[in-house]
Specification:
about 80% helix
């Protein structure tokens, strides 16, 4: 009986640790999504000022780098959203991506 109690306690501890890990992962995903949403909104709210027609190579590279960084942030936000849907619904990332692509709101 004592051994059974020890085994059950061990299994319970492992399950609690797994639940804690899952909760921590979900919290991290939600925080990342929130950060990504704030960054996206900030970018969308930036005042667009027309620049000079002719730009130097350095300015063009900087603009290209900024565009690439924006695109990367948007991709990461989308991946975070897919991961969140997959985690919360217990589905594969492919299914979550398809679910989102069909235009279903999950948040």
């Amino acid at each position: 009986m004592k051994n059974t109690a020890i085994v059950l306690e061990s299994l319970l501890s492992k399950q609690m640790a797994a639940n804690d890990d899952a909760a921590a992962n979900e919290e991290m995903v939600e925080e990342q999504i929130e950060e990504d949403n704030v960054e996206k909104e900030a970018r969308e709210n930036e005042a667009v000022t027309p620049g000079p027609i002719m730009r130097g190579n350095g300015e063009m590279e900087t603009a290209d780098d900024a565009a690439a960084a924006r695109e990367e942030a948007e991709e990461q936000a989308e991946e975070s959203r897919i991961d969140k849907v997959a985690f919360e619904d217990g589905v594969s990332t492919a299914s979550a991506k398809d679910y989102i692509r069909r235009g279903r709101d999950h948040d």
